[in-house]
Amino acid sequence: MEDPTDLFTQLAQLHAQGLLTDAEYEEKKAALRSRRQSGDLPPSPDRSLEKVTSFMASYRRNTRPWFLASVILTILIGGYFLIKASTTSPRFAAASASHLNGDSGPWTIESTTDPMTDATVKSAKATFEGSQFNFEVAVSCASTGELTYTATSYDRDGKPAEMRSEMDNSGHTYLRFQMRVDSDPTFDGSTTDPQYNNQIVLRGLLGDFVAINLFAKSPSFKEVGLAKLVRLRLFMTNGDETIQLPQDSAGFRGVIDSCLQQQPNPIPSATPTPVAAAESSDAGSFADASSEGANNAASKRKSDKSCEADVLYEVASVEDSSSKMEAGTTFDYVTQFRRNKQTGETTFCQHGGYCYPTHVVIGGKKIEAIRLNNCSVGKQNYDDDEDVFYDLR
Q: Which domain holds residue 162?
């Protein structure tokens, strides 16, 4: 049986080809309508399902490339974020897990030898991500027993990110930082006259204080190196960043152990000979005194609370190089701390006695020689043409 829809389509094609005139086309189309109305022609079949099926097939043919492209793009984006997440924020959690397997956590362990001096340097290096910047941290130990912490800041594109610099009264620039060792209180420190404005360098023998200034107590390099966790706050030009250094992995411990094995001992001391000091009626005088005056002053002040300092390395007085305090002795009745305006050198002084430099140079390295053990440096008292004087508290 003929399909009325097909008959109408054929008429339209014949008319479009010019085989039927307009009048013939209208006449035959009217005849078909009449036949359909009289029942000679069946009603047109329902082709809605066929049209839907045809549309879906066409849609799949036309959209298949875009669909595949979207799937591939989704996989690539997801993979990128998975890799990024595994190498950034969960770094510290991963470090703890890897330590159980005995490796080096986030640290890469290296050992190099200087071909000119045969000096060996063992180091641990890692990159930590802050909220805005990345920080490359290196902890190294030289064969001299010197421990060095270096933190260098970069932006997300790998370009140097500047830290906030300040200037002291002597005209020296410095980069300030804060450090917390395990659960100990936070302390302030600084890198003076830094080589780069995006890098702090902390360097010293294991017995040295980490903090450059003497206005706050800080742990020694040995205490920092042996800590399980060190928190470091760096002051950037546009915000502060805090990073955490996990130091409990076997690889990192090996770096610190190499320092412990090569730590030089303090200069050996003979029979302790504390420096003589005498009481003077002039409060601002640090003149020479006789041994008898020193003994009288000591007897008078034994019951008073006074500042004491441990002598870590042999040190000679500023006024008389033959007057020395030997390593292992105690510097009693320290009454003043002063800083030279021109050189920046610092000294501890006894009232009516000698002044002794806080640091000495051994093997070309500046090392702390005197350390306060029951007080700290206070506020500035006064100054003269050469020095600035501070009280002890």
A: 105-262
